[in-house]
Design brief:
heterodimer; A: 231 residues; alpha/beta; Rossmann fold; four-stranded antiparallel sheet; 8 helices; 32% helix; B: mainly alpha; 15 helices
């Protein structure tokens, strides 16, 4: 469980505040809010890159800052809003980087590493991209690969910054379904930010709104509460 | 997996070519010798035999340093390109050579005793490369543009060039000549006694690179991603600069500035092998770099009766057009 009490979130100055929030495993948590309200800053805070301006961030019962970056990286995976394609880096090699904790000292994968990569490719339906280079993919394809890589890392938590923004409608639904399954079946804690307001509410996720009027994070339960914010 | 096998075949072919070229280089020259002399010179040396003497004292150091210089500069270039995520980076264009050059110029031209000793020369060349490497690393945190960083490197080179010119203007004739010869780049300046030290530093650099192959593979995704994966990026960057300085300082101290090898060869290997696997890239740069400089040297030897070409001039003649080709492909 990742939790924050009396927190203030922001890069340099406070963007919004949080009274008390808990992100548990086995759930998909969805953050909503206007552009620039601090969703990315919040995800950065939860992944440990950014310290909260105020308040205490707890991770599985301990203060977050007590963990080394190595420990955090083996328990939290992060998918940025704009993964970068790299020339001459094939999708297979890219995905294998998600197994870096298991590959040998030269980065060579064992049979079980390759099996994990294959499993992820099947789950995300990206097998046909295997030998393509990551800089040749469409932004939607690249994003699917980035999510697949986070899945391969087998962390307790996955944080995703607008994971569906580059995807077409069918793939959006697919990603939401997959994230739901990962949370339920693999007991992962998944936290995402999104602008797919109405679509996301079709799934039984936990929803949070960062209100621009009160500059505060609220837990919400229906679409109406979001609609007001974006009117 | 078939590409895997063709990679191995290609690398093996280059390795065999290097061995053949090295054998040829040891045997052929102004004074003709045969392979038996080569064998004796290496394994069963006698100073009385003129052929063996020439092979051991002149040709062996030259061939060895050609191989080491090519490999070292190419690996250094690969490291710089991955560190700055910039295919146009290299120890020469980024001005890391300039650090060594400045220190060597100070040594040869100023006449201060410490610098003139062999150890002082190597030490100061390594130090110069390391300090300038850190300087470029520091600057890269402000200059995000790839071309911008390159321009910075060129400016750094020009600035150091100016200081060296001032040093030259106020130097004695002998020192001036020695420095002018050094700055043309030469593979002839190494003696057989220096080979163990040179080889040791070179192997150290290779082992260092081997140890950071995995973080290098991750660094390709960018520093933030690397950090999120739990790597200590600061330490990684320092290790890269340190190893680059080791390679660049070593070559610059013993051979003078050799341009474009560190830029052209890593680009060539990335194009040929189409990979970001740094274990493969390390092997490829080691072999292709050695092959390139060794071929250049043999060409220079072959032409030496007609025209004298300094090694730095030849690598520039071949390397500069190749870099322009990459620039055009990139900027178009």
């Amino acid at each position: 469980m990742i939790s924050i009490k009396n927190g203030a979130i922001g890069f340099d100055s406070t963007l919004f505040s949080i009274e008390d929030v808990e992100f548990s495993r086995g759930q998909v948590h969805v953050l909503m809010g206007r552009n620039g309200i601090g969703k990315s800053a919040f995800l950065n805070t939860l992944s440990g890159i950014l310290a909260p301006i105020e308040g205490t961030l707890d991770f599985d019962g301990n203060v977050f800052s007590q963990y080394s970056s190595k420990e955090i990286s083996s328990r939290i995976a992060y998918v940025s809003s704009a993964p970068r394609g790299v020339p001459f880096l094939s999708v297979d090699d890219y995905l294998l980087l998600g197994r870096y904790k298991h590959t040998n000292v030269f980065g060579r994968g064992s049979a079980s590493d390759l099996a994990a990569v294959l499993d992820a490719k099947q789950l995300f339906d990206i097998e046909h991209l295997s030998s393509k280079y990551t800089n040749e993919l469409s932004s939607g394809e690249l994003h699917l690969c980035a999510i697949a890589k986070a899945y391969i890392q087998q962390t307790d938590y996955i944080l995703l910054d607008e994971p569906t923004s580059h995807l077409d409608y069918a793939n959006k639904i697919r990603v939401y379904e997959l994230l739901g399954q990962l949370a339920k079946n693999n007991n992962r804690g998944i936290i995402i930010s999104t602008h797919d307001l109405d679509l996301a509410f079709k799934f039984s996720f936990q929803f949070y709104l960062i209100s621009s009027q009160q500059q505060k994070l609220f837990s919400i339960s229906n679409f109406k509460e979001v609609e007001k914010e974006f009117k | 997996m078939s590409s895997n096998r063709s990679n191995k075949v290609l690398l093996l072919l280059v390795l065999i070519s290097i061995l053949l070229l090295a054998g040829m280089g040891l045997r052929i020259g102004d004074i003709p010798t045969d392979f038996l002399d080569v064998y004796h010179a290496v394994f069963n040396y006698s100073e009385q035999n003129l052929s063996e003497l020439i092979i051991r004292e002149i040709r062996l150091p030259r061939i060895t340093i050609a191989i080491i210089a090519g490999a070292a500069l190419s690996i250094a270039g690969m490291l710089m390109q991955t560190l700055f995520q910039n295919p146009l980076a290299g120890p020469y264009v980024l001005g890391i050579n300039s650090g060594s050059s400045l220190m060597v110029a100070l040594g040869i031209l100023s006449g201060v005793g410490f610098f003139n000793s062999e150890l002082g020369l190597i030490g100061s060349a390594l130090l110069g490369a390391f300090v300038f490497g850190l300087f470029v690393l520091f600057t890269a945190s402000f200059i995000r543009s790839q071309i911008g960083l390159l321009l910075f490197g060129v400016m750094l080179g020009s600035f150091v060039g100016a200081i060296i010119t001032i040093l030259e203007a106020s130097s004695q004739v002998d020192a001036l000549k020695a420095f002018a010869l050094w700055s043309m780049g030469s593979l002839n300046g190494v003696s057989v006694d220096q080979l163990p030290v040179i080889s040791f530093v070179f192997v150290l650099g290779c082992l260092g690179t081997l140890l950071i192959v995995k973080p290098l593979n991750m660094l390709v995704l960018g520093e933030e991603e690397c950090r999120l994966m739990g790597f200590n990026v600061k330490r990684l960057r320092l290790s890269i600069v340190f190893i680059t300085a080791l390679f660049t300082g070593l070559v610059t101290a013993f051979c003078g500035p050799i341009a474009f090898v560190g830029l052209a060869v890593p680009n060539l290997t990335r194009m040929l092998f189409k990979t970001q696997n740094h274990f493969l890239l390390l092997t490829a740069n080691l072999l292709f770099g050695a092959f390139f400089v060794l071929s250049c040297d043999l060409l220079i030897q072959a032409l030496s009766e007609t025209i004298l070409i300094p090694i730095n001039a030849l690598t520039s003649l071949v390397g500069a057009p190749f870099v322009i080709y990459i620039l055009i492909r990139k900027l178009r």
